[in-house]
């Protein structure tokens, strides 16, 4: 099953992109917002909000949060935030998200 969830935050919305990410992940996972890991463990919410609302030429950004790949893309009316579940190999094993090779 390949579920795909997305939402669009427009410039005239009162909701910040960082809060839209948390709301969308909460809805997709069925986990209460207060039970999710803090967003700042994945990305600085202030940086996310600033990038999405500035005219700096931002186009898109992708990061991992709560077992999902979060994609934030600039669209004509604001930013679109979409989620894809993280799939970890065919064996079904899972591990810590940052346990990859160190640079």
Textual characterization of the structure:
The protein is an alpha+beta fold. Helix content is 21%, strand content 27%. It has 2 helices and 4 strands. A 4-stranded antiparallel sheet has the order 1-4-3-2, with helices on one face. Strand 3 and strand 4 form a beta hairpin. It starts with a strand and ends in an 18-residue tail after the last strand.
Give the topology, please.
Layout: E1 5-10, H1 17-29, H2 45-53, E2 60-65, E3 68-75, E4 78-85
Antiparallel strand pairs: 1-4, 2-3, 3-4
Task: Let me know the number of strands.
Answer: 4
Radius of gyration: 14 Å
As a percent range, the share of strand residues is: 25-35%
- Mean pLDDT rating: 79
Question: Could you estimate the helical fraction of the residues in percent?
Answer: 10-25%
The helix-and-strand class reads: alpha+beta
Spatial order of strands in the largest sheet: 1-4-3-2
- The SSE order reads EHHEEE
Q: Give the low-pLDDT segments.
A: 90-101
What distinguishing features does this structure have?
alpha+beta; four-stranded antiparallel beta sheet; globular; disordered C terminus
Summarize the structure in short.
This protein is α+β, with helices and mostly antiparallel strands. The protein has two helices and four strands. A hairpin with a 2-residue loop joins strand 2 and strand 3.
């Amino acid at each position: 099953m390949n579920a795909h969830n997305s939402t669009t935050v427009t410039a005239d919305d009162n909701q910040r992109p960082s809060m839209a990410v948390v709301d969308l992940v909460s809805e997709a996972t069925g986990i209460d917002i207060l039970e999710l890991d803090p967003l700042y463990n994945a990305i600085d919410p202030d940086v996310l909000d600033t990038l999405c609302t500035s005219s700096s030429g931002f186009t898109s950004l992708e990061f991992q949060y709560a077992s999902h790949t979060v994609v934030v893309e600039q669209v004509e009316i604001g930013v679109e935030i979409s989620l894809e579940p993280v799939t970890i190999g065919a064996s079904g094993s899972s591990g810590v998200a940052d346990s990859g090779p160190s640079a």
